[in-house]
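Apologies for my clumsy wording, but can you show me some protein sequence, whichever is easiest, together with the matching structure tokens, please?
=====
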Amino acid sequence: MKTISLGEREVRAAVSMREAVDAVRRGFLGLAGGEFEMPTRTVLRDGGFLVMSAQHRPTGSAMVKTLSLNFDRVPAIAGTVVWSTLDRPDHLIADAGAVTALRTGAAVGVATDLLAAPDAGRLTLIGAGGQAADQVRAVHAVRPLRALTIVGGDRARALADTLRTELDGTEIRTATDPAAAVGDADIVCCATPATSPLFPASALPAQVHVNAIGAFRPTMRELPDELLADSTVVIDELAAVLEESGEILHALRSGALTRDDLTELGTALTAVPAPPGKRTVFKSVGIAMQDWAIARLLADKYLP
């Protein structure tokens, strides 16, 4: 039996964002087609510890991720992703922080490619934590960015300096007021642990695509009800958001949304596109299939 262990550097070297987006897109289509056995994740200490698992029926492969999450430390996410298959005893173990950032960004890339205007090129990113850079990389992979605004303090300025070396030709600036920063955006990415909406719906342009990945517990909320009520809303998985998404749960309770207003991303990928000119929202709490998709890429490269 062979066990391969991969740190953040090895994970990053093996998987590009473009590969991650393509793999996660295939995963969402497979999920819609019933290919996955995927329990709702186990949450302990109100989100301080998470356990996620997925089994891919066609390949007999499985992924289990365990992590701890603490926004007061660096890195905020620490843990492992374990990959195994039925046909061989070998295992792959990968850094959960790197896999989580890649797969979260990749899901946003899939949704943005589907829902954002074809010529969208102005991104406003709210939040500059561990998930932020891969939000930008994923959007840039599907909609080359002309302008990027990062909302935050010192961490936003540090992230802007890092991304300038990657996004040649993109105008990059920082801001401190989320409501003012989203006013001319084509795409907005929210990656914060907020417990109340980051901006009013009225601050947004008439046509905009919004990704919200930061709030992953019922007590957290990045988006206002008014935005959800006035948008085409796509989610990662219904069972997951009904268990964990503060935005969706609040909007359902207030009557701003009904369950019929929610479309899973895998279904949306095969459906008629949203009408042009309408606001669109992708709300994700993160599901195990996404981790499986990245782990499979790593296994294909390190466990041939």
